[in-house]
Amino acid sequence: QLAQVGVPIWATELDVMSSNENTRADFYEAALTTLYSHSSVEGILFWGFWDQAHWRGDKAALVKGDNLQLTAAGSRVLDLLENRWMTDETHTLSQAGNQFTVRGFHGDYEVHVNYQGRELSNLKQTFTLNKGHSKTVNLNVHT
User: Fold this and answer.
1) Measured between alpha carbons, how far is 53 from 15 in angstroms, rounded to an integer?
2) If we measure between CA atoms, which residue out of 85, 56, 70 comes closest to residue 21?
3) What is the DSSP letter of 133?
4) In terms of CB atoms within 10 Å, which end of the chain has fewer, N or C?
């Protein structure tokens, strides 16, 4: 219902608590999936993550100890953010085609062109993908 007002939504001070690390991981995944999948949510802030500084202690932590070891919940959150919700595409271009379309998560992107095992740094491109949009990338590759 908040989305109908038309203002951006930020989830702040997010934490979940369970003494069972796997249950905590499930809770984080459910909360983050719900928030991340809603088009009006523009940001999510964790209230704490380290057991030694979290106001709820180790029952809400994503990392623990002086070496910041990931808990099961921390591993799950990291997997969501750096693997499952990360756009990573590879395209093979031919003489007939020198463009491709990216449909991914909104954010900033870099395009790197590799030819015969070496990056052609002069062809690197950056662009921003806005919510609900795709981007056609045009490359002019001369080998």
Assistant:
1) 13
2) 70
3) -
4) N
Q: How far apart are CA 84 and CA 73, in angstroms?
A: 15
Of residues 76, 83, 81, 78, the one with CA closest to residue 23: 76
pLDDT averaged over 10-residue windows placed end to end, the chain, 143 residues: 80 94 96 89 92 94 96 97 86 70 83 86 88 81 64
Place of tokens 């007002």: 5
Residue 88: closest CA among 107, 73, 70, 68: 107
CA 116 to centroid of chain Cα atoms: 30
Measured in whole angstroms, how far is the alpha carbon of residue 142 from the centre of its chain? 33
- 8 Å CB contact between 52 and 69: no
The answer to whether 3 touches 38, Cβ cutoff 8 Å, is yes
Q: Reduced to 3 states, what is the DSSP secondary structure of residue 81?
A: helix
The encoded tokens of residue 13 equal: 């001070």
**Could you tell me the pTM of the whole model?**
0.73
137 - beta bridge partners?
100
Rounded alpha-carbon distances, angstroms, from residue 19 to 37, 59, 72: 27, 5, 11
